[in-house]
Design brief:
Structural class: alpha+beta
Number of helices: 4
Strand content: 15-25%
Largest sheet: 4 strands, antiparallel
Distance between the termini: 123 Å
Helix content: 40-55%
Number of domains: 1
Length: 175
C-alpha cells in the first residue's frame, strides 16, 4: 500500500539536488530596471550631444553663408538674403526646432552695438549697411528635453544656445 501511495502522489522536494530553480530569472528581474536606466541614460546623453552639435553647426554655417562674398540667383548679396540664411539653419538643424535671431554689428569685433534685422517673414532685408569691419551675428536657440528626467519629473526643456559672429567679406578692388 505504501508503494502505491508514493507513486500516485509523486511528492517533489522544493529544492532539487542541482540547486534552487528560477534563481537566474529572479536575479535578471532584479537587475533589469537598473540596466535599462543605464542604457536609456547613455542614449539620452548622446541626444544631448547631438542637439548641442546641431545647434552650433546650424548657427556657424548660417553666419558663414551670410558673411560670404557673392549673390544669390536674384542678385541679392548673401548678407541681405534672409531666406538663404534661415534656409541654411533649417537644413542643418536635425530633429531640433530652432528659434533664430539675426543681427548685424557695425562697430566691429568686440563691439556691443548689435542691431536686429532679417525679421521673420522677410526674405530680403536691404537695411543693413555693410561697411568695412561689419559683422553678422546669428543666434540659434533650441530646446533639449531629456527622456530619463522627463519620465520621472515634470521638468522644462534645457535651452541650447549658440551665437556665431563673422566679419562680412566684400569685394576688394586693388588698383
Amino acid at each position: 500500500m505504501r508503494f502505491v501511495i508514493r507513486h500516485l502522489v509523486k511528492i517533489k522536494p522544493l529544492f532539487n539536488a542541482r540547486g534552487p530553480r528560477g534563481q537566474g530569472l529572479v536575479e535578471f528581474a532584479l537587475i533589469l530596471p537598473a540596466l535599462l536606466l543605464v542604457v536609456v541614460s547613455i542614449i539620452d546623453f548622446g541626444r544631448l550631444m547631438f542637439t548641442i552639435s546641431s545647434v552650433a553647426s546650424a548657427s556657424r554655417d548660417a553666419a558663414r553663408y551670410g558673411a560670404s562674398v557673392g549673390e544669390d540667383a536674384s542678385g541679392v548679396a548673401h548678407y541681405q538674403d534672409c531666406a538663404g540664411i534661415r534656409e541654411t539653419i533649417q537644413r542643418l538643424s536635425f530633429f531640433v526646432e530652432l528659434d533664430v535671431l539675426i543681427e548685424y554689428d557695425t562697430d566691429g569685433p568686440g563691439g556691443n552695438l548689435a542691431v536686429e534685422y532679417c525679421l521673420p517673414g522677410l526674405s530680403v532685408d536691404l537695411s543693413f549697411p555693410a561697411t568695412l569691419g561689419s559683422q553678422i551675428v546669428v543666434k540659434a536657440t533650441g530646446t533639449y528635453r531629456s527622456l530619463v528626467l522627463s519620465g520621472f519629473f515634470k521638468l522644462p526643456g534645457i535651452p541650447v544656445i549658440s551665437e556665431t559672429r563673422r566679419t562680412i567679406l566684400r569685394d576688394i578692388f586693388i588698383d
